[in-house]
Amino acid sequence: MATVVVIGTQWGDEGKGKVVDLLTARADYVARFQGGNNAGHTLVVAGKKIILHLTPSGILHPDKVCLIGNGVVVDPKVLLEELDRLQAFGVAVAPERLVISAYAHVIMPYHRLLDLAREARKGHSKIGTTGRGIGPCYEDKVARTGVRIHHLLDEASLRRRLEAVLDEKNFLLTHYYRQEPVDLEAVLDEYLGYGRLLAPFVGDVSTCLNRAIAENRAVLFEGAQGTHLDVDHGTYPFVTSSNTVAGNACCGSGIGPTKIGHVVGIMKAYTTRVGGGPFPTELFDTTGEHIRTCGGEFGSTTGRPRRCGWLDLCVVKDAVRLNGLGSLALTKLDVLTGLPVVRIAVGYRCDGAVLDGLPAEMERIERCEPIYEEFPGWEEDLRSVRRFDDLPAPARRYVEAIRDHVGLPFSIISVGPGREETIVVKDPFAS
Ligand code: IMP
């Protein structure tokens, strides 16, 4: 079956953008199924850079159909701005090439306000959210008080939805968070305007995908964030508000689990995290600084410096189990060039026991001491290497050690930011 799901195995920012861009060349359809504009993929095409937050990066390939599934939370203003930026970039997006699920939930102004106000009030215990209203929007979805894309197309039903929730939202905003209230008529006006602009793109993503799969067309599912930001399986409460694991490609797009052919886990050659939460292999020294600088580890959505540390295989092995991974894609191996030694955490010591995965309790994760294996580093520039056997011996040993500990093959090894700076070991669509 020509369906591939791409998932981050760590805490997001694993370099999924580049891998998705590579695999998009093989796909006919590219679908997003969770998250919203908390994600950000930086793409470099013909020397020009564009960052996409909502639209699948397949949109840059003129012959691909991109889909935004029901599991995504859509900020229509951000989406429309993105379409404008694409137009200025030379990519005109016709409705035949972008389908937005009528079932997807909409990020409303009060979601953004509540996200920011809540984080500000939490002080030191804040999650460090992206402030885009993601959590409050998913809360409303589950509370059955959300606004869906189809509501934007019908004034009477949008008015009813807003009348049902705005009293409570404004009470919270004004009395608890001391913010200005949101005006129903202004929101109604603004969002009906977005609805008019987005109407040509609204469609039935589930039917479209199932038809494509039945016709044996190649479909790529593009995960956002990473496994350990999953609301169930991640380092709760320092997580995002959606399920980021591969299983949600089904719920978030409207296909059945029998339709998934292969799952690729993207792992960076080291670990990073943005926002709060435990991070056992975090580095606070010059090595961490080297990784941040050489890896350009600054958020593409918020610009925040990312926390950096050694590769943690407990994190990756958990991701293998949680996603049913079939292969791995290793990214940013080149960033480790120049370090005298490189380390991999292969387990933790915690409360007198040895663990090989993250425990459930936040306090216990904070007490986990990584057990490291150490390898000699390498000085050679890797960016021109195109075959695994041509990597310098220490880099090869490092990759082999990861493969042996994790027990999965690598389908892709990325040795630089450019599309061509890649070792393709095996095409995931041929798996
Ligand atoms: P939210 O998704 O904005 O609610 O943020 C919740 C947590 O997930 C915060 O720690 C964010 O930094 C993190 N997060 C959300 N999206 C991404 C992403 O695309 N990459 C990395 N971290 C993310």
From TrEMBL:
Cofactor: Mg(2+)
Membrane-crossing segments per the record: none
Binding site for GTP: 12-18, 40-42, 306, 332-334, 414-416
Subcellular location: Cytoplasm
Cellular component annotations (GO), alphabetically ordered: cytoplasm
UniProt KW 4Fe-4S keyword: no
Known EC number: 6.3.4.4
Catalytic activity: IMP + L-aspartate + GTP = N(6)-(1,2-dicarboxyethyl)-AMP + GDP + phosphate + 2 H(+)
Note describing how the cofactor binds: Binds 1 Mg(2+) ion per subunit.
Biological process terms in GO annotation: 'de novo' AMP biosynthetic process; IMP metabolic process
Enzyme's top EC category: ligase
NCBIfam families for this protein: PRK01117.1, purA
Function per UniProt: Plays an important role in the de novo pathway of purine nucleotide biosynthesis. Catalyzes the first committed step in the biosynthesis of AMP from IMP.
Protein name: Adenylosuccinate synthetase
The encoding gene: purA
